[in-house]
Amino acid sequence: MCGICGVYGFNDKQLIKSMTRIMEHRGPDDEGYYSDKNLELGFRRLSIIDLAGGHQPMSNEDGSVWIVFNGEIWNYRELRQELEAKGHRFATNADTESVIHAYEEYGFDCLQRLNGMFAFAIWDANKKQLFLARDRTGKKPLYYWQNEGVFLFASEIKALLAFPAVEPEVNFQALDGYLTFRFVPTPETMFKGVFSLPAAHAMTVDAAGIRCWRYWQLKENISTGTEAYFIARTREVIRQAVQERLISDVPIGIYLSGGIDSSAVLGFLRESSEVPLASFTIGFESEGCYNELPYAAEIARLYDTDHHEFIVKPRVLRDLSKILWHLEQPTAPEHYIAEYYLAELARKHVKVVLTGSGGDEAFATYEKYLLAKTQRAFECLPSPVRRLLASMAGRHAPFEFAPSLQSPLRFAEKTLEENYLAVNAVMDEDEKRLVVSEEVKSQVLADTPKRLAAQYFSAARKFDYLNQLRYADYANWFQYYVLQNFDKITMAHSLEGRVPLASHKLVEFSFTLPLNLLVKGFGKGGLRYLYLKSVKDKLPPPILARAKQGFQLPLKLWFDAELREYAEQRFGELKAHCNLFDDRAVHALVERIAAQKKWRSRQISKLMTLLAFSEWHRLFILGGSHRGKP
Fold first, then answer.
1. Is 238 annotated as a binding residue?
2. Residues 283, 289, 290, 292: is their CA dihedral positive or negative?
3. Known catalytic membership, residue 578
4. What is the assigned CATH class of domain 2-214?
């Protein structure tokens, strides 16, 4: 796990050093540079495999091909054997070297042979061509900027901003998507002119220009077989994904929530390894809050881990600027405030940590997937009946219709894209019109979310209804909010994060599963049917019996304690420098939250979305924090 960067089009050794060193947290163990005519490469290393070797930039035997590589290749040993049989000579035991020789042997098709999490850049000195790529599901980031023959790339946006020509300006088109989803969908970033290479994409840069293409596409291929067959196959695919991610020359730990996903990952991990293992979990100081500490401790005892706990306290808001400095883009930070401290705790004990993220998407355990199945059933009814039921659901109180039928009835006459946005948006179009000032409304409200949703569903148009929603989640939410931010938060503490349940092989396999096993029936108990059947022997009864519980910070309690004052201060600072948000709308939102006696997550999420943007704007647009830590 590392930080990489480069410059194409001119030479500037001081610039490449500045770009590289601002990413020191991504690789405190080593740094390296390579120069050619009109090319600079920079590298920071967090040593995980082949601790003595593995220095980068790395080259082939004759120095005609150079690489800077971030990530891990899980099948590098098999790939090395294949390449050695074809005559390639290896000088190290690093997985990076297998990528160089695979490129020599197969060209751009080397990507089809790589199983891993990665972002890399290869300089082919003979072709005078730069070749860049990201892994299939988007675990490792890669950003770029180009203008008038100059091309810059890096693992982090801050490195690009080290070049004076890259001015930190707000990308208003990205703001539209951010206010809807709480994150910025690729290829846009919140910085004008800076782009993210999408997952499963590659690009070349040379004298002829820039060419970008997709090299992998998720497909639906529903299989047939017995329930027992799919249970056995699911177990084997999860087991393989976990085993692959145990490759390391340094100690490994695991995030343990006490839920199904992380507990199952730990169970399969223990099948393959009995070495001492550290586990990490978080809790909250406030009474009556979300707390999985007892469940995590029970799993830790079952699998004999060296267990560590961290209690998150309300005063964490003082660190919000540090967290957003590492996230680099405005991101509603409800999850990542806690994960920031969890990564900090883990790094005191290990260099590599596994997580259970990805199980919900792979095995369709969110309630919105049950909603989709229920809605699909309503589509079998005649159109007049659907319209009648939908109108009744809108007029009657919830107790007059079963709550589980409220949403599908209301959505019965809407398109798939409309329903997707309704379920996933923190603000709809009307709410955005209220909160955005008149001054920037024409720049911000550009139907970006609708265009993105249409793009996702167009790519999966031939999929079953449920799998179309899952595809959209992989293409949007999971890639940009979950995986991208997980990388940034772990790397903030020089910690490598691995996500077994986001293995591209597991994702591909999940789109072969019969839908009646993914979501069994129409009750909530059917959401985890196949998944639980497949992992139940890894979990004690109390964990199996637990109802699914979403992760929540005690933000309402924090709001009453300090968040309100903090938010009002930040909004005031933003207003003093630019008129982006409507004062009355923001004040009304704050007052609504203050008046709440119970938790209303959507209102708090709106506030945190606006607050994160205000803090980001203060850091990067006004404060120049890309030049150094806040």
1. no
2. positive
3. no
4. alpha beta
